[in-house]
Design a protein that fits this description.
Elements: H1 2-32, H2 34-48, E1 53-54, E2 57-61, E3 69-79, E4 88-99, H3 101-107, E5 111-126, E6 154-171, E7 176-188, E8 195-211, E9 214-231, E10 236-246, E11 249-260, E12 263-276, H4 277-281, H5 289-293, E13 295-312, E14 320-334, E15 341-352, E16 361-370, E17 376-384, E18 388-400, H6 401-408, E19 413-430, E20 438-452, E21 459-470, E22 479-489, E23 492-501, E24 507-517, H7 518-524, E25 535-545, H8 546-550, E26 560-570, E27 579-589, E28 592-602, E29 605-614, H9 616-621, E30 627-635, E31 638-639, H10 656-664, E32 678-691, E33 694-706, E34 709-719, E35 722-734, E36 737-750, H11 751-757, H12 759-764, E37 771-785, E38 797-809, H13 813-822, E39 835-842, E40 845-852, E41 859-867, E42 872-880, E43 886-894, E44 899-903, E45 911-912, E46 915-917, E47 922-925, E48 928-929, H14 935-962
Parallel strand pairs: 5-6, 30-32, 31-32
Antiparallel strand pairs: 1-3, 2-3, 3-4, 4-5, 6-7, 7-8, 8-9, 9-10, 10-11, 11-12, 12-13, 13-14, 14-15, 15-16, 16-17, 17-18, 18-19, 19-20, 20-21, 21-22, 22-23, 23-24, 24-25, 25-26, 26-27, 27-28, 28-29, 29-30, 32-33, 33-34, 34-35, 35-36, 36-37, 37-38, 38-39, 39-40, 40-41, 41-42, 42-43, 43-44, ...
């Protein structure tokens, strides 16, 4: 026994020594190797990361991620790849890499086999052009031989762990948004191998998924157990075992994903079979989940999903989507419901080739439920296409809406009334071809009542009798009758009667009367941003045919009545702010809709309109209707800057193009977008118009808007103390670009004031800094605006005349240098009164025609080329007395700031013009100084050109003879 005790004590002794030694090594190794590890990790980061990397500090430890020796980096920030190098791709509280201890001790090499990232925010972005921000890892080309002498770290991963990540994936080219919060991920596998199996354990607390700004998942939890075979050579992912759970709904995935040079290749199948309706409801938006907890829900459901094909933005390829949802024998009942919803069945199939809604096939084979005896609903709907849609529909039901409300146990809404519908339709619906399915049906609602929790008073006495009929599948036989549609809201009744026939040439008879409190109506439906206490008061009688207005048969129209708007807020998809219609009094008189009183504001701008619109009926009927009109416009102040599409504002309903442009260009203002459906002329009077800090006072002239372009004709305004007259045209091309033409005349403006107050003068005419006096201008220009609505100078084309009526030029460097070289001080203050300077602008160059002025007894003549960036290539002839008949040549090159003079020379140094791409609105090449060529080279080039021209002439004569 004593011997056994000694053995035990000896074992414990050596075990303790071993543990102490291991602990000692774990403590001492980070102290022995910090320089080696930190240096090699930095070498690796600098060599293999294209994005800028910043961090607070690095340290070694065995205890952070026991038992691995880890290099930890605290407060790491990694910037994105070009062109997103200023944006953060990844910000993490800690990034740690596990080090292979054997290689470190015996080979003094740093081999990274584990990565841990904790408390991170990742922002993965693809812009509209398909450029990505995550190409930050620069790998070594495989064809190069391995450099065995090179020091640095290498990666051979077996484990990746992410803890508490927030990831946003925003792909503007595919219009996809994924926003995941609280992501935890563990990946195991031989990451360094060419082909390996990746075991994944994924958990996300909340995830959103949107396509084309439509959310298909909102704040859903996600659990995933995945095994994916990855081929790093071909960048292919094969989904072997993939079990997901979205909230309570299980999904199984199979298939593959290949990453290509210009996109992806997908073949993915998903299924959620033999689940319950309650599981399916768990993926609905969050506001419905509380309802589901308190509601008895039974029944089975199945979901099938597939996505196959190639996605390539450059080649305009997208995969095919197929989905099917089955609901069987459903039962829904709230505890207070006298009758449950029973026999709920649905079979919905969706086929979307190339993710193109124009090719969408929708097949609702069955949607049905019962709410007791004589209270049921049935629907079968099949459609194919969108703009030209094949439709086969059979919808029938008689439903007590209060019973439906109680059966579902709806909390936020209280609805009542008897709804009865029976509609059958079969045929093609096409607005372009004016086709409508053969249809016979009706929708009746009696004693309707609607109240929400957002507003105390209900919309009540809702009655609707709507009948629709079509006998031959064309617009001509289509008839729609509303007799009546009426409701009461807060003691104000609203009545609408409508009888519409022959939609090829609509015969209409409409009456509308009532008062509607728009602000409170929006509050009923909890619409934020529309909380304006606005009123609409209508008393209208519209009677006529669509063609009466378009063919000028106005006497056959009987449109009359009034429409009054007060304090109404309105938005459009292309303006950042809302219009506030303070008062709008509209009167209908046959073909015209008169604006008798119209006062509106937009930001700081105000407008008063008086005039009429034509074609209002046709505009609302036709798919591509154009509004015609003529108005007088008066304003105290218009600030053009606040109309620029990317400016900040309260409008949340911007177009997706504007929204994406704003995200991709956060510091840009964009350009002003013009509506494409207006043909309106305006006689405009504005006391003050401001554009980019430039004040235009007492503007008066004719303006028109037509097909997305604005025209100004005979328009004048006061600017820098002078009256300017202009004719102009403006057209936007996108939220970021626009083009314009302008012809302007201005008499007697102060050059120095123009130089100080107008940016364009300082940028285009830098020499104006040394000019004082009065100048007149007659000029024509065309060009493009950039994303901040500033002129793109290389895009400018045009020309005109500048008249120097009464000016003095002092200390202009180019003239001063000439004076210094010819010994004439008078060049510092030449006499240029009455001189006309004619110039032509193209490709960022200004070509100056010959003009002559006086310098004491001398008569200099100048011509040549200069650029907006200051390059000079000018020819000067200094005429000597008497009369300047005899003179000598001077060449001026260099720049405005540093001119170079050659006397008795005619050989300058040309300027190669800039190149500008009008399609992409980009400068391809800046102008530059031409290469110097000897006289021999110039002579050879001239001879070659003459020979080429001679051969071309011979070929033409030969061709003529053969004919």
């Amino acid at each position: 026994m004593e011997k056994f005790t000694k053995i035990i004590l000896k074992v414990l002794k050596w075990l303790g020594i071993s543990i102490a030694f291991i602990l000692f090594l774990m403590f001492i190794i980070p102290i022995l190797f910090p320089g080696t590890i930190s240096q090699q990790v930095k070498i690796f980061a600098n060599k293999h990361l294209a994005g800028k990397l910043d961090c607070k500090k690095t340290h070694l430890s065995f205890f952070k991620h026991f038992p691995s020796l880890t290099v930890s980096v605290d407060q790491l920030i990694l910037k994105g790849s070009k062109p997103f190098q200023e944006d953060t791709l990844l910000a993490a509280k800690e990034v740690a890499v596990g080090i292979n201890l054997k290689n470190l001790i015996f080979d003094r090499e740093v081999k990274i086999d584990e990565i841990y990232v904790t408390d991170a925010n990742a922002n993965v972005f693809v812009n509209s052009k398909g450029e990505v921000n995550y190409n930050v890892y620069v790998s070594k080309p495989s064809e190069k031989p391995k450099d065995t002498t090179e020091e640095g770290a290498s990666i051979k991963l077996d484990l990746i762990k992410f803890r508490n990540w927030n990831i946003k994936y925003n792909d503007h080219s595919a219009r996809i948004l994924v926003d995941a919060k609280g992501l935890n991920y563990t990946g195991k596998g031989g990451f360094s191998k060419d082909i390996f199996d990746l075991q994944t354990d994924l958990e996300i607390n909340k995830v959103d998924f949107a396509l084309n700004r439509i959310y298909y998942a909102k704040q859903k939890s996600l659990r995933a157990d995945l095994i994916t075979r990855i081929n790093t050579n071909a960048l292919t992912f094969v989904l072997r075992k993939n079990e997901l759970k979205i909230n309570d709904l299980p999904l199984k995935f199979t298939g593959s994903l290949s990453i290509l040079k210009d996109g992806y290749n997908l073949d993915i199948n998903a299924a959620s079979e033999k689940t319950t309706i309650r599981d399916m409801i768990s993926v609905l938006p969050p506001q419905y989940l509380d309802w589901a907890k308190d509601t008895k829900i039974e029944g089975n459901s199945d979901l099938f999903f597939s996505l196959k094909g190639r996605f390539s933005e450059p080649k305009k390829l997208k995969p095919r989507l197929n989905a099917r949802l089955l609901v069987k024998d459903g039962f829904v009942s709230n505890g207070k419901a006298p009758v449950p919803m029973n026999n709920l069945n649905m079979d919905l199939n969706v086929d979307l080739p190339s993710l193109d809604t124009e090719q969408m096939n929708l097949n609702l084979r069955n949607l049905s439920f019962d709410l007791g005896k004589n209270n049921n609903f049935r629907a079968v709907v099949r459609t194919k296409g969108l703009n030209e849609m094949q439709v086969n529909a059979d919808v029938k039901g008689a439903v007590d809406l209060q019973t439906l409300d109680q059966a579902l146990g709806l909390k936020d809404i209280d609805v009542r009334g008897l709804m009865d519908t029976n509609i059958k339709a079969n045929g093609i619906f096409s607005l372009d071809k004016k086709l409508f399915p053969k249809t016979d049906g009706y929708l009746h609602l009696k004693n309707g009542w609607l109240k929400t929790k957002y507003y105390p008073n209900p919309i009540q006495n809702i009655n609707l009798i709507a009948n629709i009929n079509n006998t031959d599948g064309t617009f001509k036989s289509l008839g729609v009758k509303l007799d009546p549609f009426s409701f009461d809201f807060e003691g104000n009744p609203v009545y609408v009667n409508a009888d519409l026939k022959d939609f090829e040439d609509l015969l209409y008879k409409v009456k509308a009367k009532g008062v509607l409190n728009v602000g409170r109506i929006y509050k009923v439906f909890a619409k934020k941003g529309f909380d304006v206490s606005g009123l609409i008061m209508a008393d209208l009688s519209l009677n006529g045919r669509q063609s009466y207005a378009t063919t000028g048969q106005y006497s056959k129209l009987d449109n009359k009545g009034t429409l009054i708007l007060k304090n109404i807020k309105a938005t459009t998809s292309y303006l950042p702010k809302s219009f506030y219609i303070k008062e709008g009094n509209f009167q209908f008189e046959n073909e015209k809709m008169w604006f008798r009183k119209f006062f509106a504001t937009y930001g700081k701008s105000d407008f008063a309109l008086n005039g009429y619109l034509l074609n209002t009926i046709n505009y609302f009927i036709e798919r591509k209707g154009i509004l015609h009109g003529k108005f007088g416009l008066n304003s105290n102040y218009i600030l053009i800057d606040e109309f620029m599409a990317l400016k900040d504002g309260d409008n949340a309903d911007k177009s997706i193009e504007v929204e994406y442009a704003k995200v991709e260009n956060p510091k840009s203002s964009g350009v002003v977008i013009i509506p494409k459906n207006l043909d309106v002329s305006l006689e405009a009077h504005a006391k003050k118009v401001e554009f980019k800090g430039l004040d235009l006072n007492h503007l008066k002239g004719l303006a028109s808007v037509n097909a997305g372009q604005v025209y100004l004709k005979n328009t004048s305004f006061d600017i820098i103390g002078s009256r300017m007259n202009i004719d102009a045209r403006y057209q936007d091309e996108s939220p970021l670009t626009a083009n314009y033409d302008i012809a302007l005349k201005v008499q007697d403006f102060d050059v120095q004031r123009a130089y100080k107050e107008i940016d364009m003068v300082r940028e285009m005419v830098t020499a104006a800094k040394n000019v004082k006096g009065i100048v007149s201008l007659d000029y024509k220009l065309k060009g493009d605006f950039d994303k901040n609505m500033r002129p793109i100078y290389p895009s400018l084309e045009g020309g005109g005349i500048v008249n120097l009526r009464d000016v003095e030029v002092k200390n202009l460097k180019m003239l001063s240098v000439i004076g210094d070289n010819v010994g004439a001080n008078a060049f510092n203050n030449p006499d240029m009164k009455g001189v006309n300077i004619e110039t032509v602008i193209k490709n960022n160059l200004i070509h100056v025609d010959k003009f002559t002025f006086k310098v004491s007894v001398l008569r200099p003549t100048i011509s040549g080329t200069t650029s907006f960036n200051g390059l000079l290539d000018l020819r000067v002839r200094v005429g000597l007395p008497p009369g300047g008949w005899i003179g000598f040549p001077v060449v001026v090159t260099g720049t405005h700031d540093k001119p170079k003079i050659k006397i008795f020379s005619k050989t300058g140094q040309g300027i190669v013009d800039a190149l500008y791409n009008t399609k992409s609105n980009k400068v391809i090449r800046q102008e530059r100084r031409a290469e110097k060529k000897s006289r021999v080279q110039q002579r050879k080039e001239k001879e070659a050109q003459e020979k080429k021209a001679e051969n071309a002439e011979k070929q033409i004569k030969k061709d003529l003879k053969e004919k």
